[in-house]
Structure formats: C-alpha cells, structure tokens
C-alpha cells in the first residue's frame, strides 16, 4: 500500500512533464518561445521602432523630436556628400577587413588542420582565440598604444628608418582585422579539418601545385564556412565606430556619424542606421545566390 502511494505521488508530482510528453506541438512551442520572443519581441520590434523614428521631425529651434512623417532625413542621408562618402568608406573598410581575414584564415587553417604538430596546433588555436579573452575596448586601446607616435611600432622600426602611417584608415582596417579575425579563422579551420586527406594526395598526384590545390580543391569545399565567417567580419566591421575613433584619426565611419547624431538629431541617426542594414541585406542576398547559405 505504501509503495502504491509513492508511485501515485511520483506520477502526480510531474504533471507538466507528462503533459508535454503527450503533446508534441506544445513541447515544440515551449522550446521555441524564449528565442522567438527575443527575436520578434526585442530585435525586430526595436528595428521597426528605429525605422519609425527615421520619419520623425526635429524642431530646429528647440531640438525637440516630434512624431510625424517626412522623408527629409532619408533625403539628407542619400544626397549629402559627406554621408555618401562615409557610407562608401565604411563599406570598403568592411570589405577589406573581410578579404584580409579570408586571405590569412585559409592557409593558416590548412597548416593547422593538415600539417602542424598537435602542440603547434594547440598553440595556434590559443593565439587565434586570445583576442576574445580581452574586452573589446581593451583591445582597441592596445592597438592605439602600439601605433602612437612614440608607440611600439615606431620604436621597433626606427633602426630600419620606417615609421608607421599614424592613425588613419590602414590602422582602422588592421585594428578591425585583429578584432574579428577569430570569427573567420575558427569556422575555416573546422571546415578544413573535415576535408579527407586523400583529396590533397589526389590533387598532388594529378600535378597540382599548392595554390592550385587551395583554389580548386580546398576553397570550393570550405566556401560555406568562409561565408559564415564573412557575415561576422563584414557586419561587425560595418557597425563599428570605436576603432575609427581611437585609431582612425580623422577617419569617420557610419557608426561615428550615428553616435554624433543620436542626441543631437535622433531621426537622422535612425535614418542613417538603415544604411548598414541595407548593406548587410545585400551581402546576404549575394551570398544566398552563391548557394553557400543552403550548405551552412
């Protein structure tokens, strides 16, 4: 009798789990509810409110924002030469960072996955992920200290008569590459590690050199990983502005202008925020046309 009571009590103590076990759709809904609430309720709604703000008005005398509908903010963003130049500059910087990350990630991934000894592979893995261990602002300040007028780079290159370019666009690109390279290197390395070694042997037996093997054998197989990494490097570079502020000198990016206007003219800042979103959507559409997103 006591055992029966314990069994009944045990069954009654888990009504929710028993209910979810019998109803698959409810169980699936309970799993998807938290992430969908975040995506729809926070992310998408925030973007929608941002888009609405881009149509509002700013009183030129009081600087107060009032709800309304006008296209002047978008007209300004799309016609003022300074805004156009900054948009193009930011796009080219993001593309340059992505290209440099790919250029170094592929041979490094091949070396780590197929050539390096285990201890060297582990050492390189730590070196790649090391920037992720420090704070974002700490890494930018570190790059600033390296390339200041009396910084490490000029000190090390002084015996050779070489001086750094100072705070400029090349240093911004270098800083962003340093920040986001792990997001490219890790997926590329993982993809190369999954390539069977006999493909490299077959390519060599057919007379292909190293670069030919990379171009015709390796790169087509790791394209989904490259696209996945490039989405991070491209989008993160587009939205960055602290790198330009601390290591770019007079260089401005889209984020710089948004940060300047977020208090002075929020509708203009909201309208200009649509530009990087537009660039990212176009980038994803181009990536989708390649078929890489379906294979990710």
CATH superfamily: MetI-like
Number of distinct helices:
14
| Strand residue percentage | under 5%
Number of domains: 1
Strand order of the largest sheet: 1-2
CATH class equals Mainly Alpha
Counting DSSP E segments of at least 2 residues, the number of strands comes to 2
CATH topology: MetI-like fold
The major beta sheet can be summarized as: 2 strands, antiparallel
- Shape descriptor: globular
Mean pLDDT: 81
Q: How far apart lie the N and C ends? A: 57 Å
Give a verbal description of the structure:
This protein is mainly α and 296 residues long. It is built from 14 helices and two strands; from the N terminus they run H-H-H-E-E-H-H-H-H-H-H-H-H-H-H-H. A two-stranded antiparallel ribbon has the order 1-2. Helix 3 packs across helix 14 (266-289) and helix 11 runs antiparallel to helix 14 (266-289). The radius of gyration is 26 Å and the shape is globular.
List the helices and strands and how they pair.
Blueprint: H1 2-12, H2 15-22, H3 24-53, E1 57-58, E2 65-66, H4 72-79, H5 81-115, H6 118-133, H7 136-146, H8 152-157, H9 169-193, H10 197-205, H11 210-239, H12 242-247, H13 254-264, H14 266-289
Antiparallel strand pairs: 1-2
